[in-house]
Fold each of these.
Amino acid sequence: MKVKTLIATAVFLLTSAAANAGTIVYGTGSGNPWSNLTNDAAMNSAFGESNWLKSYGFSTTLFNDADFVFLDGSDGNADAFSSFLAGNLSFVQNYVANGGHLFLNAAPNVGGSFDMGFGVRLNYGNYAADTVYVTGAGVAAGLTADGLATTYHGNSFSHASVSGAISDLINDGKGNTVFGAMQYGKGFVAFGGQTTTNFHSPSPDGAALLVNQLQYVAGPQSNDVPEPASLALIGMGLLAAAAARRKSAGK
């Protein structure tokens, strides 16, 4: 294969990956949790402004053509969120099983504990964590990339814990997970009980932590399409192989 053909192939792979990229979605209830836009700011930092869609109200239409969906049912949105999940658990689980990436978070101010699907339960009631810790697994997952703190405080950092067969990535130091994740079929799903980052300190680490969480869940754990950097390496490998064949042929 000629070098020009190899280069063209690498370019085609890169452009095809971009063309096939799905939608990134953030959905919440009828109003922003705690009447602030810190989730929106985190989405902008994680994916770039105008590279994601926002929706008020929980609906299965949010999942159409989406590669990554972040649903936050915190504050007064918890009842609507739990009702949506209860009525659509099979749909949501099938979305992830077929390769979707999903982050379900709720720090309720109303209602009670509820089933989040995937064998995971959100535990509300009198639970609240003012201090949380990024675990060793969370550090390995990149949640503290760029030197972020591993201990965080808030009033409260979380209003609920999550339990099930999930990796414990952030916890309260008392055996309660406030952010965890799992592989599910071809996809990846994370669960949290976190409040919005205006309650989290130290700053700006608290805001940056959510950005890293979003990027981690949306990342390529179950993505069959290579990342652009990986595609570039493929192209370089193809070129190196071609050069080696030319050198061998010239002997």
Amino acid sequence: MPEAPQPSFSRPIPGQHLTSELGGRPWQSPPQYATIEEAMEWYLERFDSQEVVEELMAVLESGIPISTVANSMQLGAVLQGVHSIDIGVLVMPILMEMMKYLAENTDTNYKMGDEPEQTDRPSDAVMSSALNELKNQQEGSMEEEPMEDEEVDEEPMPEQTGLMARRA
């Protein structure tokens, strides 16, 4: 009989993030780079590495949109204290264009992330209206009176007893 997996106790305690000193985390300190130009220089140094570019192209080839990768990169830099979230939002379109340029130069298939999703499934609005129409049809068929030729068997309801029975 296989042994049950041992629980992992190496996770943070709930509320642990509230116990650190103010300014003790990288994102709580002033950023290393305060302008878009400085932050872009930091990113350009990262894109100079051939290993980074190869990994990035492999990620894009797997179908992950450029917008998702750029957002992850800028959020990671914010968490490291490289730049503020404001600079990250402003840098993101530039990062996306850089990745698009790299993908086109290396003949890598990519998605920007703003393409409409193409599925064979009908939209939620169409599904909702079809369900409502089906409900209306079922309610209409239930409300129809029985035909005169049909005999309706009405069995008397047994009297309810017990603690939760309604009193008449």
Amino acid sequence: MNVRAVVRTSALLVTIGVGACSAQSTDLEPEVQLAAVYPPGGSLDVSVDATITIAFTHPMMAGMEAYLALHESDVTGPLVPGTWTWSQDRMSATFAPAAPLQPRTDYAIHLGGGLRTAMSQPVSFEMYGMQMGGQWATGNMMRGGMGPSMMGSGWQNGDGTYGMVFTFTTA
């Protein structure tokens, strides 16, 4: 084999090797996780002035605040008026209610199943959601009064759930 053939063969192998490595690296990309919820699900005696915050392991796509909600009572209860604001790095969102929360009242933070990162990756609730007191928002739970507004594609996850719900009670 002459030198040119060796160089061409080596270049081909390097190209194939680099292609194989890059294909594998996307398979090894870390899954996007819900990192924190405050207050965690099941919390009692939460201050009516508490800061409601959620955090993720990656920056979130613009517009994802449309799939974040705070309900009075449970996930079928009325929406609490207010505004979700993203941190500068878009890895956490904070809810500012239009008025203080009501004392001795149940609330539910609803995170839609279609939440996506800035790179359009879906968010997984599976690893930490239940550990933070979350429960799956199922179709039966949603049909209990939510209607179609929170059952669309942005709210539904590929697994058929409608995200996760974290309930808490104020002091």
Amino acid sequence: MRGTVPGLASPHPLGETLPSLYGGDSLAQRLCQGLDEVLAPVVVTLDCLPAYLDPATTPGDLLDWLAGWVAVTLPTTMPDRPRRRLVAAAASLSAWRGTVRGLEAVVELATGQVPEIRESGGTTWSPDPHAPLPGSPDALLIISLRADPRLMESRLVPLISGFVPAHLPWRLEFRP
């Protein structure tokens, strides 16, 4: 929770910005000191804004807020380092959302492993209009991973569901 920081000095005291007429006025200076204490956290936050917007340096409680900006659902059970990597890569991954390449990248960032992905679809080209169609008529995506299902399922399901096309049924399999 953000709030006031007792005793935090303002980097830009308001009393110094007053006209010289009020420089020696103790009431005006005390009022400015009171405002300095209230405004100091705001000024410090604004001075440090680039650090708050960088996934590598933002405080942990703001990481979910940054993830919302780039449309990534971060599971709370996931460790901090993969969460930060996912938010940092989310903008470039958005171009690959809904593709096998994008799914592989997301799962690899979250787990450190490249998954095996099997899909029912396919594309081909043929000069013969009666050539057989590739793939299977039943749509399905299977993401297979070597991991403990008790640890990984709660982390991966919300993350993967944001990257799989909405019309495509999918399932997550764990291999020993």
